[in-house]
Amino acid sequence: MSNSSSMNTQRSSEQTIAEGSYSSQAPQAPVVSLAERKARHAMWRGRIGMTVYLILLLMPIYWLLNMSFKTNTEILSGLSFFPENFTLENYAKIFGDPTWYMGYVNSIIYVSMNMVISLLVALPAAYAFSRYKFVGDKHMFFWLLSNRMAPPAVFLLPFFQLYSSVGLFDTHIAVALAHCLFNVPLAVWILEGFMSGVPREIDETAYIDGYSFPKFFVKIFLPLIRSGIGVTAFFCFMFSWVELLLARTLTSVDAKPIGAIMTRTVSASGMDWGLLAAAGVLTIVPGILVIYFVRNHVAKGFALGRV
Amino acid sequence: MTKVENNKAWWLVMPVFLIVAFSAIIPLMTVVNYSVQDIFDPYTRYFVGTEWFKQVMLDERLHDALIRQFIFSFTILLIEIPLGIMVALMMPTKGKGASLALILVAIPLLIPWNVVGTIWQIFGRADIGLFGAMMAKLGINYNYASEPMHAWLTVVLMDVWHWTPLVALLCYSGLRAIPEVYYQAARIDKASRWAVFRYIQLPKLTNVLIIGVLLRFMDSFMIYTEPFVLTGGGPGTSTTFLSQSLVQQAIGQFDLGPAAAFSLVYFLIILLVCWVFYTTIMHMQKDK
Signal peptide: which range, if any (chain B) (predicted)? Predict the structure, then answer.
């Protein structure tokens, strides 16, 4: 599919490059070493640039981490790169109080539910989109994607009323279903990309060998797109974990996410900065764990399986 | 890949259709319903036709929010796309360093959006935050809570910090898909670094860049939580974007009719822009 055009670009690029090199008729050996030296320079420039970028990227997070180990008096008394009186008091407060740590449990419950639901419904649909033509398939695909584009703010009030009227308000499943609005389309999109990379012949051979569709799908097809499923789960986790507007609106006590509980650090006596920082740090930890597990596949997944 | 014509495939799509319909079509119909009625209480309501739409179209505050929204989205696209490509080109490709860089770069994407707001709220304060303190050292009286320009700078900086990694990782995965022989050919031809980028890497990045621009445009157009936590839309209304003015109207003032009409207009704008992108992608795939 992409061969002809990329071949063309490549050929034209080769021509241009070739023309360029004819004009500079330099002796052979020094040029090679010059090129090598240039490459080494480029590599070092890349490394230095990357290090600078990573430092800038991680500095705000480090600042939060640093603050979470300080007492409020120390935070307000001045800036320092390391906590002088290292304290775990802020973390102890969170782990010692159910109204705090249940926030994390609630968030993890609805995120997991959302991941499972999204994958279960998206897998067959993605297979259908990647293998079959059917009436309205293109419109259906665009309609699905259009839901990924819907601003949550638009659906805030209707969601609240809908889930209240069916008695799901303040349950984990309500948030999980609401997050399906943007996660299911995304899951279908990513999985379709991965599935299209599996040759059709595999399906056909399996059917000839007498496999039924469900048996083929579970036993042969799913293992082939393992990494795609992992990456999809990762993306569902990511977008459900970071969303707060819908999660906050659809819950009040029993399923309240951690993000909403964090606002408690504002009180009449001022901000409890240390506690806020500690709570923030703890919301970052699950994300790092999850990305660690999919690190080898995630590069492909970021292009939604479409490289 | 050739696809087989088979309408039974609808059965496989049905669960997705039902679940998305439940959380998209029903609420959307509620919004449409509100947008044409004047509601006093659950039992007294009048049909008002397009009155709310007229009101919304003429609302100065919404015009301002829309303009701000476009400026914001284009600013961050202009910064994040080139910066993301640069970072992707710099990322190590082999060994332990590659995994490590990948994980570290991805971290901002996995932080809940309200915590992103909190991080920058702290980081930008002159009394307890490093960035704010550094600005103060440079002699700038930096205060994002009272200076509109500073508030803008902080919001843009926050978004660049938050989302450049997405563009970078997209481009990184695009770059990984380029076969080594292309580079070898370029080396034999003694191509300059720029020529390699322009004629080998950039053409291969087009696909992922379109996805990147699309995702960044959509998400920046819906931004709510981060500026809400950071500046609360202020000072004044200088960082109040579309989502926030919508939430203010719907929840704060409970003007259901205008808010619903506004929602529909808002949704249509996003849909229109994304339809343009989508058709472009489809055409490009057809050309190949």
Answer: none
**CB atoms inside a 10 Å sphere around CB B253:** 10
pLDDT band per the 50, 70, 90 thresholds, residue B107: very high
Q: Which segments within B35-138 are labelled E, that is strand?
A: 37-41, 44-47
Minimum distance, in Å, between the CA of residue B4 and any CA atom of chain A: 5
β-pair type (B4-5, A132-133): parallel
Q: Largest Cα–Cα distance in chain B?
A: 79
Q: Chain A: residue nearest B95 by CA?
A: A296
Residue A88 burial by Cβ neighbours in a 10 Å radius (0-12, 13-18, 19+): exposed
What CA–CA distances, in Å, run from A37 to A31, A285, A288, B178? 10, 42, 37, 24
The residues spanned by each domain of chain A are 94-302
Record the tokens describing residue B98, joined without a space.
């590659």
The arithmetic mean of pLDDT across residues B206-224, rounded, is: 85
pLDDT confidence tier of residue A137, bands split at 50, 70 and 90: confident
Are the Cβ atoms of B112 and A241 closer than 8 angstroms? yes
| Residue pointed to by tokens 């808002």 | B266
Among candidate residues A238, A242, A225, the one with its CA nearest the CA of residue A123: A225
Nearest CA in chain B to A242: B112
Length of chain B: 288
ω before B235 within 30° of 0 (cis)?
Answer: yes
Query: The complex's ipTM?
Result: 0.85
Contact yes or no for A194/A227 (Cβ under 8 A)? yes
Q: What's the topology of domain B59-241+271-287?
A: MetI-like fold (1.10.3720)
CA distance A116 to A128: 19
The 10 Å Cβ neighbour count of residue A175 is 31
